[in-house]
Design goal:
It contains 11 helices and 13 strands. With 317 residues, it is α/β, with parallel strands linked by helices. The longest helix has 16 residues.
């Protein structure tokens, strides 16, 4: 378990992390979300003792990171897949980590097999693709068979098979009762992986809740209806006190009612329905809604690029 209490980090006048308090619990995958510059990486670095907090506290299973006698057996982390000696082979990179942390050599073979790198174990890491580097970083995180796993953008560079693999790996680790904390900008993947969400913006905590509750609280849910007898359906809905809004494609949208109730009402009046479907926003839409005021870097669509002018001294190549 990871516990943060009032965690704060300042760089001069810049407050990167502002009074964060939350708990990452075992047995579930907790997603860590926030716009660029929100303070996610700084927070994760403080969890691992790589940055010292300006104020507040963070504990790993009740102790500070530097108090852990065998840190690799408590917590494994992937923060930067490029943080390795490119001249070493994958095997020797992991062996170095194992020997410096009292981990048996046999464990190196096990994690290489787990991440699918056994066939390239003797190849130098500098020749690895981005996805292979990610797999090697994940192998390093798993090396000590830790109780807690932290991953920062673990699917970066992975192909669809690799993404499917890391998703199932994180779920299986949580199912074993381990604590799994993962940061990612890939919302579609986070929606399939995380059970719980911690969302920050400009260093502040914005949400600490289940995936389902987060989407429900930060998005519109409605029922979409299509019928060849739309006008008659509108009259029936109106008579029942149900407000329907006409969508652009001719469908109707109803807020605050269950599809079962609307279907039963239509059946009572013998109205044929071609569609009766509950609609809910995606995680991405809910995230954008919540963090709209916390985005530090805004891009503007439609801004024209400046073209070189032949008469302004432009001389080509």
């Amino acid at each position: 378990m990871i516990e943060l209490e009032g965690l704060t980090k300042r760089y001069g006048e810049k407050v990167a992390v502002n009074n964060l308090t939350f708990t990452v619990r075992p047995g579930i995958v907790t997603g860590f979300l926030g716009p660029n510059g929100a303070g996610k990486s700084t927070t994760m670095r403080m969890m691992l003792g790589l940055d010292r907090p300006t104020a507040g506290d963070v504990r790993i299973d009740g102790r500070h990171y530097e108090q852990l006698k065998d840190p690799f057996r408590y917590i494994g982390a992937l923060l930067d897949a490029k943080a390795m000696h490119g001249g070493r082979s994958a095997f020797n990179h992991l062996l170095c980590l194992a020997q410096s942390n009292g981990i048996p050599r046999s464990r190196v073979h096990e994690v290489l097999d787990t991440v699918g790198l056994t066939s390239v174990a003797r190849k130098k890491a500098k020749g690895f693709s981005l996805g292979m580097g990610q797999r090697l970083g994940i192998a390093g995180a798993l090396l000590g068979d830790p109780r807690i796993l932290m991953f920062d953008e673990p699917v970066n560079g992975l192909d669809p098979e690799g993404i499917h693999w890391i998703r199932n790996l994180m779920k299986s680790l949580a199912a074993q009762g381990r604590t799994v904390f993962v940061s990612s900008h890939l919302m579609s993947e986070m929606a399939l992986t995380a059970d719980h969400l911690v969302v920050i913006g400009q260093g502040r905590l914005l949400a600490d809740t289940s995936m389902a509750d987060f989407i429900a609280r930060n998005s519109r849910s409605y029922v979409r209806i299509r019928s060849p007898h739309r006008e008659r359906l509108l009259d029936v809905l109106h008579g029942a006190g149900i407000t329907a809004v006409q969508a652009g494609d001719g469908a109707l949208e109803v807020d605050g009612w269950k599809p079962e109730s609307i279907g039963e009402l239509a059946a009572q009046h013998q109205i044929v329905l071609h569609e009766l479907s509950p609609q809910q926003a995606s995680l991405e839409e809910a995230f954008m809604q919540l963090t709209a005021e916390s985005v530090e870097y805004h891009a503007h669509a439609g801004t024209p690029l400046t073209q070189p002018q032949w008469g302004d001294g432009w001389k080509g190549n």
